[in-house]
Each structure stands twice: as C-alpha cells, then as structure tokens.
Amino acid sequence: MITHKNMIFPDPVIPPQGGIQTPSENPIAWIPAAACPVLGYGAGMTKKEGVRGSSDKNIKGEKMRKFNIVVVLAVSFIGNFGLQAAEAPEQLWMGPAVRMEGVRAKGAASAVSLKVVAPQGVAVELPIGTVINKRTINQYTEPRQARPFSWTRGAASRETEFTLESPVYLVTEWTGQKRLETTFWDRSCDYVVGDGRGDWRGFFNAPRYEKPKRLADAIKGIDKSAACVIESGAFSSKPRHWDAFKERIAQADAYCRKQGFYGIYTKVIVEFGRDNSRNLGYEYEGSQNCTWTQIRQPVWVEVTDKDVADTGERIRRVVRVQIVSGGDLLPSESEAISFSFDGSNVGNSNTALNHYYGTPLNFDGERVDYELRGQRQRVTPSNTLLFQVTPGNGEKLLNIRDTDYVAGSDNPEAQTLAVLTLYRNRTGWTDEKLHSTPVLLNNGQTVVALNQSFGSFMKPGKTYYIQYALQRRNSRFNNDNAAKEKEGYRFDR
Questions:
Q1: Residues 118, 195: one domain?
Q2: Residue 170: inside a domain, yes or no?
Q3: How confident is the model at residue 94 (pLDDT cuts 50, 70, 90)?
Q4: Rounded Cα distance, 82 and 252, in Å
Q5: Do 123 and 7 fall into the same domain?
Q6: Which residue of 90, 300, 356, 404 has the smallest Cβ count within 10 Å?
Q7: What are the angstrom distances between the C-alpha of 148 and each of 347, 364, 443?
Q8: pLDDT at position 394 over 80
Q9: Domain identity same for 278 and 394
Q10: Residue 161: inside a domain, yes or no?
C-alpha cells in the first residue's frame, strides 16, 4: 500500500469481472477488462512502486503530486469529462469522488495518467482532439453524388448505356466539447500583487437578484453562466490576487460543466484574461514587476459538427443516352460528355465540341432514357493533311488529301484552303523560309506540281520540307481561323 498525506492507494487489484479497480478503499471507478488487456508497473519498478510521484506543485495550499500508473487502455473507452456516475457510458462506471479530465498516449500504447488533484480525487488527461460529452442533435440519411460517367464518342457514335450508383450516407449531427491546444497570454510576477480593488460593478454588495447581471458585467466571458458561477460558491468572497482568481474560475468551470455550461475558464482566463486582470484590480501599471508570457495550453471548446458514414446502400439508375439531333463530328474529332447522379436527378455537363441539352425521359424505376440535342461549336481545324508524291511527265506531283472531308457533310459554300510554305533545312542554323503559296482543295483534295510551284527556290543537294496551315471558310464545323503550321512533306533536291 502506498500513502500520500491523507490519501491511501492500495495496490491495484483485479475485480472478479476482470476489470481494473482504481486505487481507493472503496470501488469508485471500474474499467472493464476488455478495455485493459495489460496491467503492469513499469520497467524497473517493484509492485509497491506501481504508483510513483513526480513534480510537486502548490495548489490551494495542498501539495499536489503527479502519479503515473502503467495501464494499457483503449482511449476510446474514456468518453466523459466531469460527469456523475449516472451520466457515464456503460464501459465506465464513475463514483462522485472521481473526476476524469483526459487520457494521454504514452509510448507505444495508450496509458492512463492519474493525477492527484485533491483527497479522493483522480484526474486523467485526454489527448488534443478528443471529443467528450458528445450528444446527437440530428440524424438523417443523405444520398451523395455518384461517380461521374464520361462518354467519349466519335463521329459514328450516337448512343450508349451505363449505370450510375449514388451512395447513401448516414449523417449524424452532434454537439460536444473538444480538447484543443490554444495560445494565450498569462501574467507572471516576481511576487503576488493586486488585491482585486477593481471595478466589480458592485457585485459583492448587490441584492441577490441582481448578482448574476453584475457578475456578467464585471467579468468578461461569464455571460449566461453567471448564475451557475454564483451557485458554485466561487465568488462567495473576493479573490485577493490573480492566481486566486484563476483558481475560483477553475472551481466554477468544474461545477458548471455538470450543469451544461462549458468553456468558462477558457473564455474568462484564456480569451479575456488580460482584460479581466486589469479591470478587476489585479494589475496596476508601474506598481509591480510583472510580465505577460505567451502560453500554450489545452482548453475545452464547445463544438458542433457532424459524422458521415457510408450505409452501404446504393441508389442506381441505368441510363440510356441517345443523340437525337445535332452532335455532328468530323472523322478526326472526338468529344466527352459527362453524366452525374445525385441520388435523385441525372444531369450532364459538356467537355465537348457540341453544346448538349436535354432532359431525362421515361423514368421507370431504376431506368432512365436520356435524349440529347446538340448545338455545334465552330472551332479552328485541327486535323492533318495527307501528302503523297507521284511521278508525272518528268515532274513530281504532290497529292494532298483532307482526312476530315466527308462528301455532303459540310455547307455547300464551304472551302478548305492550305497555305504551303517551303523551308530549307540548315544543320546547326535556323531553317530558312523560302516561299509560301495557297492552294484550294476541291472535294477534299488537290495536286501540286512541286517544281512548278517551288522549283525556282530550290538548289540541288539540299534538304527541303513543306509545312502547311489548314483553314476552312464558311464551314459549319470550323471557324475561319487558320490552324498552326504542321510539317507535311520532307525531301532532298
């Protein structure tokens, strides 16, 4: 058995149910065996040294000694903070003398850190990010966007069929307190100063019915919890220095948490500490050697959030898509049309050469027929020309063919023009541009006599090549802009 002042810590015992009994003469907190697979005393420690003290600290005149008990514990089983036994979860029974403040991970496993804060009181530190007192405020199912389907089609493709699946999620909206780490300014002095002779708004002399409002006006951050703070007895007398004031606020915070008020200490000390110190008479300019120091400290903050879980349920739509008008493409072109499903409606978006519009028709259970009508967007031509050289009457003939020409598909007045440019290849130098000439393609093709068009610009023994810039005029597929040059034919003279 280990003792500290008037506190008695018997050796940890294993209850009949297989749980772990916290150090106390009477069972005040039980942790189920499922949550505690291992019980030990730490490396180099005897059984009697299973509870070992460190760093003394003076709080309210009591020596507080920190003890570490090596117990492997699943953090998720500790889910409440400052609750009475009736409010604790099934996995953890707590007596009124026990106060659970958190659980800290130590080493490879999660260990319980028990900190003696008062006779018969035990505190445990939770890690940053832990949520406690989690209460569901709303719950509903919600379908989410299905994985989009992208239909890539060419000129000959005008219909398709596919299935869209919208996952259904369970959304749980909740409120609770979350442990966060914050940075704030706290005062440190060479000696205790101030006597609280600030502006308390007449709180201590006010009639009982006026006290809540007077206290809320005097102390920033008290707000609607003023009546509870008074009920806690924290301000039955005036604190005579800043450290005593902080202890009173901590006392009120612990009491009022059980009444449903959270974050009192965080607001009064962390958020508005500097203002309260000055306003309440705990800081006098030039009369003491005090400094404000930036401190990082965990705080509890009221949060509202939601959890989203996949139920495994799926809402399905078999979609049949047909282009009933428009949607024309040239042989070299392709386009993608994306379809989405939000669990209710099927929609489409265009990453396409045509602008499509249409609505789902013939909705029948899980099947949807979708008819699209397209409006062509005129773009700069991007296809290639084919070049083929054939002999003819001692002359090289350059046969040029438009790969996107389809008889009768374009406007009757449409014209295809190619500007041919001759270049001489110069190794190690910029190639030399020699001559350009436009040629008109009739029915998608033309023939150019190489010597007749470019002979006077060429010399024997040199390498040449012809580049072309394609242009269509009056076309329903393309605008009138010329495309960038592409290489068409390379040869030696």
A1: no
A2: no
A3: very low
A4: 12
A5: yes
A6: 90
A7: 10, 21, 41
A8: no
A9: no
A10: no
- Please tell me whether residues 121 and 234 are part of one structural domain: no
Contact call for residues 307 and 176 (beta carbons, < 8 A): no
List the domain range (segments joined by +) for residue 464. Answer: 385-492
Q: Indicate whether 413 pLDDT > 70.
A: yes
* Bridge partners, residue 59, by sequence: 62
pLDDT tens profile 119-169: 344 445 678 888 888 899 999 999 988 889 999 999 999 999 999 999 999
pLDDT surpasses 70 at 311:
yes
**Please, what is the average pLDDT of the chain?**
74
Q: How far apart are CA 15 and CA 263, in angstroms?
A: 36
> Looking at the 3D structure of the chain, how many domains does it have?
3
What are the tokens at 360?
């789902």
In a domain, 297, yes or no: no
The structure tokens listed for 62 are 């009591």
User: CATH number of the domain that 454 lies in?
Assistant: 2.60.40
Q: Which of 242, 273, 288 is the last residue of a domain?
A: 288
Cβ–Cβ contacts within 10 Å for residue 217, how many?
Answer: 15
pLDDT in the model for residue 194: 64
Residue 251, domain member (yes or no): yes
> Which one of 104, 127, 150 terminates a domain?
127
Radius of gyration of the chain (CA): 41
Cα 465 to chain centroid distance, Å, stands at: 55
Average pLDDT over residues 240-263: 88
Q: How far apart are CA 172 and CA 267, in angstroms?
A: 28
The token duo for 365 is 């259970």
What pLDDT shows up at residue 116? 28
